[in-house]
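Exercise 3.2. Students should predict the tertiary structure of the chain below and write it as structure tokens, then compare their answer with the key that follows.

Predict this chain's 3D structure.
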Amino acid sequence: MKTKLFLLVMLCALTISGKSFAQADNKCYELGSLFIEPAKAKNYEVALQNYDKVVTECPTYSMATYQYAVKMFEYFIEKGDKSKIADLEQAYKYRMQYFGSKTKTGDVLSDIAQIKYDNSIGTKMEQFNAFDEAFKKDAENFTSPKSIYTYFSLAVDLQSSGEKDLQDVFDLYDIITEKLEKEESELAIKINKLSDKQDAGQTLSSKEAKRLKAYETNLGSYGKVKGSVDGKLGQLADCPNLIPLYNKDFEAKKNDIDWIKRAAGRLSGKDCTSDPLFIKLVEQLDRLAPSADTKLYLGQLEKEKGNSDKAISYFEESANMQDDPRKSARIYYRIADEMKARGRNSQARSYYLKAVEQQPSMGRAYLKIANMYAASANSCGNTVFEKRAIYWKAAEMADKAARVDGSIAGNARATAASYRERAPQKSDIFDAGMGGKTITFNCWVGGSVKVPNL
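Answer key:
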């Protein structure tokens, strides 16, 4: 009898509990709809009237609450109501609190920091610290090109006002540049994959076409930001600033391997290699930790002495030893330039392609190859038609440069168009009877091109 009574009580409790949960769900659904539906329709004045009740009584109802709240508060801020900045920040915080697993911290925190910066909220140091927190907490999802530039720009401004050390700015420059190149390389790989599909004659789906367009747009943005970051750093990173800075700290830092590496790397990158300080840094680095960087610097010293072959040998050894593919790419590109200057076009192309293998977004390597192809027109073919056909091949390579590197895309497309104008035109193809035929190049360029059908 007692058992039956206990089961009856439990059944009643569960029934009441179920009804309570159902009532709560219905209540949150109604409250959520009162906010979300007008927000969807961009009727933010009405949506705002129901927002506080939703987040107070049903904070975990739906992530859409906070997604639309962000859009709503951004709307009011754009209309000039800066009091809504605090509300926007709180909406982001609610989302991180209640839907943290579905929220990218770096993205959210950098958005908050950017909005405060755009609306002149706080001092420059406070603004910088907000971006710094976002980057250090979640660098992977700190991807906004605008915010990356603002973050670095604030650091330079703070250095100019005496609130930051020059070394801090240089260190952040290295971090930001690495971040931008990483994002560019990842986008370039995605672009190449879809572009190769197109080049193989396959049609992209509508989703793939949209993704390709988005990748290309973002790549262009990163390229512009990289140029702006370099411009913002400006004369701070010139030899007249670098050499006194590192000379001053050398004795105190000469056994700090990381410091020696950074100092030698920056002097190398800015062609300050003729100064005695550079030689002193390289010799000390070689004593402390012989490495890929040591080989690079020894190569630079050999080049300064005029020993080009020995310099290239050191450069290649350094490239093969590097852990960072971007560093390898830059060294291979440097070797390629040296080979090109000597007229060793085939070897130069090999090194440019090695550079691209290491850093797929290095479009300037493709562009150099395109220019070498075009410059070889007179020596690649027996007839005038064949010689001019090399410009099609040059244009293809320039197109590749434009696809993978937003920072030079405009120049690369213009170069490709220029080369196509120099290639045989429709009347030339008709007169020569070459439509649809394949031309093979027996010079250093090699390969072939298919003449367009009329």
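Discussion points: The CA atoms of residues 7 and 13 lie 10 Å apart. Residues 5-22 have pLDDT under 50 and may be disordered.
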